[in-house]
Specification:
The complex is a heterodimer of chains A (192) and B (668).
Chain A: H1 3-16, H2 35-48, E1 50-51, E2 64-69, H3 76-82, E3 86-87, E4 90-97, H4 100-103, E5 108-111, H5 119-125, E6 132-135, E7 147-152, E8 155-161, H6 162-167, E9 171-172, H7 174-179, E10 182-184
Parallel strand pairs in A: 2-4, 2-5, 5-6, 6-7, 8-10
Antiparallel strand pairs in A: 1-9, 3-4, 7-8
Chain B: H1 40-45, E1 64-69, H2 70-76, H3 81-84, E2 91-97, E3 100-105, E4 116-120, E5 123-124, E6 145-152, H4 156-159, E7 166-172, E8 180-188, E9 191-203, E10 207-218, E11 222-223, E12 232-245, E13 249-269, E14 276-299, E15 302-317, E16 320-337, E17 341-357, E18 362-365, E19 369-386, E20 390-401, E21 405-419, E22 422-433, H5 437-440, E23 442-449, E24 455-459, E25 468-482, E26 485-504, E27 508-510, E28 517-544, E29 547-562, H6 571-576, E30 582-592, E31 596-605, E32 616-627, E33 631-638, E34 644-645, E35 652-655, E36 657-666
Parallel strand pairs in B: 4-7, 24-28
Antiparallel strand pairs in B: 1-6, 2-3, 4-5, 6-7, 8-9, 8-36, 9-10, 10-12, 11-35, 12-13, 13-14, 14-15, 15-16, 16-17, 17-19, 18-23, 19-20, 20-21, 21-22, 22-25, 23-24, 25-26, 26-28, 27-28, 28-29, 29-30, 30-31, 31-32, 32-33, 33-36, 34-35
Classes of the chains: A alpha/beta (192), B mainly beta (668).
């Protein structure tokens, strides 16, 4: 089995099997936060490690837009988390959107697993647009997404498709690439 | 009808798809401190808990829906589908003996739950001979169940006839979600031994499969008089494949087969002295089914599905045999109409053929074999009166069956979601239970009095038995102010007419077959009417991310009365007295350090007056431990608060039981 496929299987298993909770060796608390709160924090953090082309960044007073396409797995946690936060020195606006055309105006776009079937046309619409496309559905980066979440041992991990990010003129910092579980792309560096 | 020797009931089925509507609300955990202040490295070290991926839409559902999740099943320690149903509000589960349950939704509990429609992955398991569901043969590997949706209230407009008081959708996971293997083995006092295995994987990126097998051996229940008889052994095997043909088409093919033996005690009437005999023998239970579903997405909001299934059941009781073949074809499409309307429509066709075999006294059915056809069309439009805030759903199903011809079951539902955290809904619906063979053409001799000359009671045909009707009025409110807190309450008023009743035709002497006897020919009629009203409340509180409490309270009052022209003095009281007025379920689920889980469930059921069943409290306790290498060990105590207790009439008592279970999971 290829590593990608193994990860795919691991993702499925971790997402869907009943979930034993292991006290984290590294965290002092025995009460893990819900998966999507942590993913929300990741979304926020990703933006810090990505450089957008100048023309993609709005005038200073305009907000930094994080979009959410499809069924919302975050609930209110995302709103709470991003309240009063700044990204690239801008206020953050959260948009829950239902069609890909609106996604062009986002800086970061999370595509929900509910859009599994329509991922290909969505990505087509976004082609060449400087939108950081993040998701957690199966085969997300293989199908052209930029950052795909996976779960490993109850911890959130991510894989990066560097080619897709390059095509969108987004510069991912080397730190981000280093932390990724795998980096897919022609001149990929980093990974573990 | 409890006089049948077995308590069995009737009805004809339809049913369809499980896609629409909803799922209930599930707890998550309370908000954490500011996670954005953490670095990516720190975030990556953090353990997370996972909740269902599609949480929002069922919150807006204009119906009383409760979802029993896979986690609920595992953490409650239940070992069968009927036992799992105890967790849901508005469901009355009474275990008659080790291998039979009486189940009702919002009243009308009976051995076969004749007013409730049960579907497994879109396959109706309603038996149109005795009307209802043989709970003991509805099984699968519990670990592969994704969820059980319990819809209280009529579902006739979508699922068709017999979804009168409720609909239960048992939905298994896609084969995509069941890669790897699970092995469970265990045993104990009442659950004498059991084992299960599943293996799943994929071929290429798009073809996913699993196969499973299971077996159990269950102990008898307690009987005061005579020998214990109802032990039960059953095995089941099955498969499921999910095949993604490009981004628009998905094909699911699945099937199961089972075989079992369940001990029975049956009292039959015979025409020779002593005119009645009690036999302790096994029922042989066997069946198989295969289902194929093709789903085609024209675009994300416009999809259609075509489904076919074949189901075979063969049930051999000590004095009666039923073999049945059912073929069912359903089509359905969902599409948006303009910006406000979302239309779902569909059609279905079913043929079901049975072959029955009885004894000279229990001929059971005249004719012995019969084929029934069922055709249906339905349409449902969901109208966004105010986008995301006010939704009106109008729908109806038209059906044609061989007994009563056309049946029309409309409903209207309104949901108001003023804020994202609360929903208020109301509904008016019509539902029918169509006649089944036991209502129309039974030939069952059930009782005898040998002196001064032989007299027998017999259920005889009545071709005038019609559908039973319900108009239901429901309303509900649910609120989830934060992820860690949920509260829902709903009320219903069910107005029934033409409810089944008994009557007696003029007595006659019969000399063939010998001996000569006086026959009391009973018939089923529709001469009861009345109402049930009640409500349910359920709440969930996550005190800590690792500690969750859930409480459910259900209330129902039945009031039936006779219409003119019936001598029936029994049925009214039997139905009324067979529904508990009050039920409570309290659950605590706690995850402790080092992989421990402690999950007690306490439940209360108030008395069943007519059946002389006193109220009872009891408790189940699941202790789980997650060890290394994906090993899970569980110790489960069931019905812990007393040595034994009765839940239904019939003389059997359910005993306290303890079992242990080990589960190994391997990823692929």
């Amino acid at each position: 089995m290829s590593p990608a496929r193994r990860r795919f299987a691991a993702l499925l298993i971790f997402l869907f099997l009943p979930r034993p909770t292991w006290p984290a060796a590294s965290s002092s608390s025995a009460s893990p936060p819900p998966e999507y709160q942590v993913k929300a924090a990741f979304l926020y953090n990703f933006a810090k490690f990505v450089d957008w082309p100048e023309e993609a960044l709005p005038p200073a007073e305009a907000p930094f837009v994080i979009g959410l396409l499809g069924d919302d797995p975050f609930g209110q946690s995302l709103d709470g988390l991003l309240k009063e936060k700044l990204l690239k020195d801008r206020k953050i606006t959260l948009r829950r959107i239902s069609d890909a055309a609106a996604a062009k105006e986002c800086h970061v776009l999370f595509i929900s697993a509910s859009e599994q079937k329509s991922l290909t046309p969505i990505l087509k619409t976004l082609e060449g647009q400087p939108v950081l496309v993040v998701g957690d559905m199966d085969q997300f980066i293989q199908r052209g997404g930029m950052i795909g979440f996976t779960l490993e041992n109850h911890k959130v991990r991510f894989n990066i498709n560097k080619d897709a990010a390059d095509a969108a003129h987004l510069k991912l910092s080397s730190e981000l690439l280093k932390l990724a579980k795998t980096v897919q792309g022609s001149n990929a560096t980093g990974g573990q | 009808m409890r006089n049948f020797g077995r308590h069995r009931f009737r009805l004809l089925a339809t049913g369809l798809m499980t896609f629409f509507w909803v799922r209930t609300v599930q707890g998550a955990a309370e908000p954490m401190p500011d996670l954005t202040s953490l670095s990516l490295e720190d975030l990556m070290k953090m353990d997370v808990t996972s909740v269902s991926k599609t949480p929002e839409n069922r919150f807006r559902a204009p119906a009383a829906v409760y979802v029993i999740t896979q986690e609920d099943i595992r953490r409650s320690g239940v070992t069968s589908i009927p036992e799992a149903l105890r967790l849901a509000p508005g469901v009355e589960v009474a275990r008659i003996n080790a291998n039979q349950w009486s189940i009702g939704v919002r009243g009308f509990g009976s051995r076969l739950a004749r007013y409730t429609l049960v579907l497994i992955d879109g396959r109706s398991v309603y038996d149109p001979l005795f009307a209802g569901t043989y709970w003991e043969v509805q099984d699968t590997l519990l670990e592969d169940i994704d969820r059980i949706e319990v819809i209280r209230g009529p579902g006739g407009a979508l699922w068709g006839s017999n979804a009168v008081n409720g609909v239960i959708n048992i939905i298994t996971k896609s084969a995509r979600e069941t890669h790897g293997s699970i092995t469970t083995v265990g045993g104990g006092s009442e659950e004498r031994s059991f084992a299960g295995f599943r293996y799943g994987g994929q071929r290429g990126d798009r073809f996913h499969y699993r196969v499973y097998g299971k077996y159990f051996d269950r102990d008898e229940s307690y009987v005061h008089v005579g020998e214990e008889y109802d032990d039960w052994q059953q095995g089941q095997a099955g498969f499921r494949t999910d095949w993604n043909l490009g981004h628009q088409d998905d094909v699911t093919i699945q099937g199961d087969t089972y075989k079992g033996r369940a001990g029975q005690r049956i009292t039959s009437t015979i025409y020779t002295p002593p005119y009645s005999k009690t036999i302790l023998e096994d029922s042989d239970l066997a069946g198989a089914n295969v289902l194929a579903r093709w789903k085609h997405d024209i675009n994300p909001r416009n999809s259609m599905a075509l489904q076919f299934y074949y189901d075979h059941t063969d049930r051999t009781d000590p004095d009666f045999e039923e073999a049945r073949d059912t073929y069912d074809l359903d089509f359905q499409q969902s599409l948006p109409l303009g910006s406000r309307n979302s239309l779902t429509y569909g059609s279905g066709f079913r043929v079901t053929a049975d072959d029955t075999r009885g004894t000279p006294t229990l001929k059971a059915f005249t004719p012995a074999s019969r084929t029934l056809n069922l055709v249906n069309f339905f349409a449902q439009d969901q109208i966004a009166l105010i986008h995301q805030i006010l939704n009106l759903t109008l729908g109806a199903k038209w059906e044609h069956n061989d007994y009563t011809g056309s049946e029309f079951q409309p409903n209207g539902r309104l949901a108001w979601t003023p804020t994202e955290t609360q929903t208020l809904w109301g509904a008016i619906s019509k539902a029918v239970r169509t006649p089944s063979r036991v209502d129309r053409n039974p030939d069952i001799t059930v009782a005898s009095v040998p002196t001064p000359f032989l007299q027998v009671g017999r259920f005889t045909p009545n071709e005038k038995f019609e559908s039973e009707n319900l108009i239901a009025y429901e309303a509900g409110y649910r609120i989830q102010p934060k992820e860690s807190l949920f509260f829902g309450v709903d009320g219903f008023y069910n107005d029934y007419d033409d409810v089944y009743s008994l009557n007696i035709n003029p007595l006659f002497f019969e000399s063939n077959p010998a001996p000569t006897k006086l026959v009391f020919p009973f018939i089923f009629e529709n001469r009861l009417k009345g109402k049930i009203y009640g409500g349910e409340a359920n709440s969930m509180l996550s005190l800590r991310p690792w500690w969750r409490l859930e409480g459910v309270y259900s209330f129902a009052r039945i009031n039936l009365h006779k219409k003119d022209g019936t001598a029936d003095g029994v049925t009214e009281g039997t139905i009324e007295g067979g529904t508990p007025w009050h039920q409570v379920v309290l659950r605590s689920s706690m995850e402790l350090p080092h992989g421990w889980e402690v999950d007690p469930t306490v439940r209360y059921v108030s008395q069943l007056r007519k059946q002389n069943i006193p109220a009872y409290w009891t408790m189940d306790l699941h202790l789980g431990w997650h060890g290394p290498r994906n090993t899970e060990v569980a110790l489960v105590g069931q019905n812990l608060l007393q040595r034994r207790h009765a839940e239904a009439s019939g003389g059997n008592e359910i005993q306290r039981g303890v079992y242990g279970r080990v589960t190994w999971r391997y990823g692929s």
